Amino acid sequence: MSIAALGKIVWVVGIITWYFIRVPFERRAKRVQVVSTRRSPVDMFGLASGLLGLAIIPAFYVATGMPGAADYSARPWAIVLGAVIFFFALWVFRRTHKELGRNWSITLEIRDKHELISGGPYAFVRHPMYTSFMLMGLGQAFLLSNWVAGLAGLLGFAVLFFLRVDKEERMMLEIFGPQYRDYMQRTKRIVPYLY
Length: 195
Ligand SMILES: C[S@@+](CC[C@H](N)C(=O)[O-])C[C@H]1O[C@@H](n2cnc3c(N)ncnc32)[C@H](O)[C@@H]1O
Known about the structure:
The chain is mainly alpha-helical. It has a single domain (3-186), classed as Four Helix Bundle (Hemerythrin (Met), subunit A), CATH 1.20.120. Helix content is 68%, strand content 4%. The protein has 6 helices and 2 strands. It has helices at 3-30, 41-64, 76-100, 128-143, 147-176, 178-186; strands at 34-37, 109-111. A two-stranded antiparallel sheet has the order 1-2. Helix 4 runs antiparallel to helix 5 (147-176) and helix 5 packs across helix 6 (178-186). The chain is elongated and about 55 Å long. The chain binds S-adenosylmethionine (SAM). S-adenosylmethionine binds next to helix 3, strand 2, helix 4 and helix 5. The chain crosses the membrane at residues 6-25, 45-64, 76-93, 141-163. One of its GO terms (molecular function) is protein C-terminal S-isoprenylcysteine carboxyl O-methyltransferase activity. It comes from Ensifer canadensis. It is found in: Membrane. It is a multi-pass membrane protein.
């Protein structure tokens, strides 16, 4: 088996794992009432960009090998590094879901009896789930030795994140007021101590 094929297999295993982590929380979210929503066409566009870059474009590449013209030769160290980053991202992703629990939504929504979570991964950064998406995108860039499919994840993450983060923080400030303001003062957004 070639090194490039190994990278594709690791990515497929990772994305299937991602799906099985997410499904139970989506089911549970359907049972908790939404009391306020900021769902908008812009946010849906951001979500679609994330899905396209982190799932659809790489899946298309793995299935068809296209665009082959953007391939470059795979390096064993890159596959190992990509696998470590991707599976660390999945661990963070799972931790954030467990910590958010019934407060989780796929978009900008406030649930019935919504609580502000500031423990577990939320003690380090305000948006650890987005940190996990960024790390997945980074892992994908090392695992898939193709300029388009490899970099699509980071691009999709960036569109989702920058279209959403200000609106999400404004919504949390409106709902939780000084509690969220204090939380903002002690945490960074997605990279501990940096940003
Ligand atoms: C897709 S989740 C992402 C949560 C967070 N931005 C992150 O990256 O971990 C988005 C929803 O989570 C909720 N949320 C975000 N931060 C939260 C927090 N610290 N505590 C409770 N709910 C939060 C909001 O209702 C938002 O609509």
